[in-house]
Amino acid sequence: MSSSHRSDPGANALLRLYIAGDTPSARRALESRLRIMKEWAGGIEIHIVDILAHPEAAESAGILATPTLSDERATPPRRLIGDISNTAQVLDYFGFRGKDSGYDHS
User: Fold this and answer.
1) Which of 35, 49, 50, 68 has the most beta carbons within 10 angstroms of its beta carbon?
2) Residue 83 structural domain
3) pTM for this one?
4) Total of domains in the chain
């Protein structure tokens, strides 16, 4: 397993979702955020960072596009930019396994 994946998949994870205001893509990302957290049943927290309200947070993290879902505790940071609606693929990308998602993780 690479250093970018979770060493303990059962531990609570903290991701950040960078959005820009109240746009259609931001609203879709927020809906996807809820599905991802529900799929992992409380094992994932996803904090929202609106870069319009907090541009310094985006600048310090090096965020250039939104929406971006980021695990900044990984080395190097793991980021998904754009559509995060495929919950199973998002969980797989960040090294989590969806419970009963039906997605083949092999």
Assistant:
1) 68
2) 13-93
3) 0.79
4) 1
